[in-house]
Amino acid sequence: MKKYWLFIIPLAIFLSMTAFLLSGLFSNPKYINVSAVNRQAPPFELTDVMDEQRLYSEKVFLGEVTLLNVWGTWCVTCAVELPYLAQLRQQGVRIVGLYYELDIDPDFGVKPMAQVRNEINDILKRYGNPYQFNIFDKVRTYSFDLGVTGAPETFVIDKAGVIRMHHIGDINEAVWRTKIEPLYLQLQADAEGIIAGAGTL
Fold it and tell me: Of 118, 121, 135, 197, which is most buried by a Cβ count within 10 Å?
């Protein structure tokens, strides 16, 4: 009887672990429920990736509907979406970058900031620059506060600084037209309505 249990217990543990790992493998990360949605953007004080003397806070999201795009030069999919994001900027969409660099993390090695900036300039010249500016999330604290799992990811933030959508993955024409643009246009219309209403008082 003891030999029977010595066989069954390890088998049960193995099957449980296998089921858990398979559920993660086949789950769709695009539909993760993120608690940051419909809440104010978390507070922060971070510098510009190109100029450490320029400091940003959550106030940069006030007054305009903004796409906050999480990216890095090390991210291949980020480069793929840059040309389309650059088109959106030309159409008047406000896009702010949240940049983080893996090679500044001690776990991945150390890269000088001069090299980081050169790589950023190079990739934006090559694929297009959609960003009004880039917030430097050096140790990824703000990414963690937002619930970021990787890159690229994009947050749609309304004029009051409330996160209204968290999209995981690249933005292409299909994603923009079917998923993001309807919300973006609604938020733009809501913002214009508030301004018009205030003007009639």
Answer: 135
Q: Which residue, 38, 128, 115, is CA-closest to 89? A: 128
Whole-angstrom CA distances from 86 to 2, 17, 77, 126 are: 67, 44, 15, 11
**What radius of gyration do the chain's Cα atoms show?**
21
Nearest to 151 by CA among 123, 171, 128: 171
Task: Say which residue the tokens 């994009």 belong to.
Answer: 154
Let me know if 17 is exposed, middle or buried by CB neighbors in 10 A (0-12, 13-18, 19+): exposed
Q: Could you tell me the two tokens for 13? A: 């543990």
CATH code of residue 74: 3.40.30.10
Quickly count: other Cβ atoms within 10 Å of residue 78's Cβ: 22
Quote the number of domains for the chain: 1
Q: For residue range 30-51, what is the model confidence (pLDDT) as tens digits? A: 434 445 899 999 999 999 999 9
Q: Which domain holds residue 165?
A: 30-199
User: Does the residue 168 lie in any domain?
Assistant: yes
Distance between CA 82 and CA 171 in Å, rounded? Answer: 9
pTM score, whole prediction: 0.78
Tokens of 154: 């994009």
